[in-house]
Specification:
Aminopeptidase; 3 domains
Length: 464
């Protein structure tokens, strides 16, 4: 299984980030460093492929699209990790191309994005020249700045500038440009980022008037895109912001650069208005993809009626009967799990088995159902071993007095039909011990065909 580690040094994955084809700011060294606490990332390397999962205010344990040589293998590893860890399969920072890829991979997904985290992308020439009617406002602001402050200068940021930039930043009487928690998080981390910008391979520029700093910007270049991670200016100097943005683009412009990514607006209306006034060529949405298994679509309190039976979620008043299913040695001989391995010397109480069953459900491992005749529990159906492609495995056990009466096939058929029509069940699996002939016959009556066998088991499959 994947061995995830906290991302404490972003330089460890720098080469992977720089090779990503998804040009979101979140896949840059600067953003990962600046927002390392607000957006906690764990990472693992599989077959020269980077796998990251993130937990933040909006979600937990969401996976980035893998970066590296073995995408398909990494996706399988992610699926197995989710199954064994009992967590949903969710992806974050997915662009439109990979959104379509994942939607084609998995039969049941939900896609959405949070507009406040969308990146604003611009042609870099737009900032180099501010030409054209659409950008006349920015051009006028720059001209006014140059007229008011003819002795202004713009210089490339050096390590020796860090202390002066920090002093300038701390002197700014800023009002939050975006929602409070991101403002606070940025303010807490920015000093550290400025001090380490060179070690992080970042680039920056300083705007001065009369030799005093009035603005600075820091970012990085990846591929054909210049990223603007931080841009701060003294608003008392009219036109400082558009001047700073233009000078940054001009200072690092070359024939290989095509775009500037000026990142998100964080939901701040003023910041959104400002970014839109620069007329982005694309507002790049960061899709979140939720992948659903059959388990996700099973209702918490299922109740199915057949001609003679009821199939429903196991309830508190079923505890004693459920315990007796486990204590029946003949049934457990072919169940595949011996409760005594976990219980050891403790007493096998009804509460224990009921909690055990609920624990398996909480871990997304299996979902058990009571089969009832005249309100009495006569057996159990289990769906388990869920995959993310509409697959699940079915198991069953019935008290001896209720075997051979068609109850198992009646109840199982009803559950299978419901799961196929309502929960996305596409492939049904089952297994039985080679010595368990009644189960073998039942599984075949349910339409499953043998596909393989081991020394102890037959394995079956049915496409629905």
């Amino acid at each position: 299984m994947l061995d995830f580690k906290p991302l404490t040094d972003v330089n460890l994955i720098k080469n992977y980030l720089n090779s990503s084809k998804i040009s979101f700011c979140d896949l840059t060294v600067g953003v990962r460093y600046l927002w390392r606490d607000a957006f906690k990332v764990d990472y693992a390397i599989f077959d020269n492929t980077l796998i990251m999962k993130e937990t933040c205010r909006d979600y937990k344990n969401a996976f980035y699209f893998p970066i590296g040589d073995n995408i398909s293998g990494a996706l399988i590893e992610i699926e197995n990790y989710c199954k064994s860890s009992g967590i949903p399969l969710k992806f974050c920072y997915i662009d439109e191309e990979r959104k379509l890829f994942l939607e084609n991979c998995y039969p049941s997904v939900n896609s959405y994005y949070l507009r406040e985290w969308s990146d604003y992308i611009y042609p870099i020439e737009q900032f180099v020249t501010y030409s054209g009617k659409k950008l006349s406002g920015q051009r006028n602001h720059v001209n006014k700045f140059k007229s008011l402050y003819p002795d202004h200068t713009f210089s490339i940021m050096r390590d020796s500038d860090a202390d002066d930039i920090i002093s300038f930043y701390l002197s700014l009487n800023e009002k939050p440009e975006h929602n409070a928690w991101t403002y606070i998080e940025e303010r807490n981390k920015l000093k550290d980022y400025i001090k380490n910008f060179s070690a992080l391979d970042q680039i920056g520029g300083i705007l001065k008037v009369d030799g005093k700093i009035v603005g600075f910007t820091i970012g990085e270049i990846i591929g054909d895109t210049l990223y603007s991670h931080v841009e701060k200016a003294d608003r008392n100097f009219e036109g400082a912001y558009p001047t700073l943005a233009q000078e940054f683009a001009r200072a690092f412009y070359n024939e290989n650069l095509k775009f500037i990514n000026r990142e998100e607006d964080c939901g701040d209306e003023g910041l959104r208005k400002s970014k839109l006034q620069y007329h982005p060529s694309e507002i790049k949405n960061k899709n979140i993809i939720e992948v659903f298994s059959v388990f996700d679509k099973l209702p918490k309190n299922l109740e199915l009626k057949t001609e003679r039976l009821t199939v429903e979620t196991i309830k508190e008043n079923d505890k004693e009967d459920y315990k007796n299913l486990y204590l029946d040695e003949n049934l457990n001989m072919f169940w595949g799990y011996d409760y005594r391995e976990d219980l050891k010397d403790n007493l096998p109480t009804a509460d224990y088995f009921f909690s055990f069953q609920n624990g398996l459900k909480d871990k997304r491992e299996e979902y058990s159902f009571a089969v009832k005749l005249n309100r009495k529990m006569i057996g159990e159906l289990v769906l388990y071993n869920f995959d993310f492609f509409g697959g699940a495995e079915i198991g069953f056990r019935f008290f001896k007095d209720y075997q051979g009466k068609g109850y198992a096939i009646e109840s199982s058929s009803s559950l299978i039909k419901y799961a196929a029509e309502n929960c996305g069940l596409k492939t049904l699996y089952s297994r039985c011990f080679i010595k368990n002939e009644p189960s073998f016959k039942l599984i075949k009556k349910l339409g499953l065909s043998p596909v393989s066998e081991s020394q102890t088991h037959y394995f079956f499959k049915r496409e629905l």
